[in-house]
Design goal:
about 160 residues, mainly alpha, 6 helices, elongated, transmembrane helix, DUF1345 domain-containing protein, DUF1345
Length: about 160
């Protein structure tokens, strides 16, 4: 998506793709938390028959990874939507809120980079956050990432400890 025509098409799609942001956000968050809770129930299960099955470990690991990735993927679409949305409430008339170095027309990979950097490190890297609205969203994303990653680490330690017994 380097040409201006492709960028205009991407900008239009990003504005349309976010849906009802609050509803989608809560559905994704509840789904991910439910998935993590199901993994926790599998890990602390006293039923040895469940633990002895060949699909136990792959199921637990893939559920944790997918729940984690789903949250950050949802945020990447939300960042793209907020970046390209023209919203009079926030006095926003054009694309703004994030300054990607060396890239005049950011695409989904740029927003994925931003979202997954926050998801992995709870901070932004070389992308500058230039609007209050996106700073607020980034703060919420960072806090969710911190608690989610803490939970993933705790589950992993518990799972490893359980496997050694």
């Amino acid at each position: 998506m380097s040409s201006k025509e492709n960028w205009k098409e991407f900008e239009k799609k990003a504005r349309e793709d976010d849906g009802s942001a609050s509803f989608v956000f809560f559905i994704i968050l509840i789904s991910s938390v439910s998935s993590m809770f199901a993994v926790l129930m599998l890990i602390i299960s006293k039923d040895d028959a469940v633990r002895e099955t060949s699909y136990y470990l792959p199921t637990v690991i893939s559920a944790m990874i997918l729940a984690w990735a789903t949250v950050h993927t949802q945020f990447l679409f939300h960042y793209a939507h907020e970046y390209y949305d023209k919203d009079e409430k926030w006095n926003k008339k054009q694309a703004e809120g994030l300054n990607f170095p060396g890239d005049e027309y950011p695409d989904y990979l740029d927003f994925a980079y931003y979202s997954f950097c926050i998801g992995c490190t709870f901070q932004v890297s070389d992308v500058e956050t230039t609007s209050k609205r996106l700073r607020n969203i980034t703060l919420i994303h960072s806090l969710i990432s911190f608690f989610m990653n803490t939970f993933v680490v705790a589950l992993t330690i518990n799972m490893i400890a359980g496997l050694s017994n």
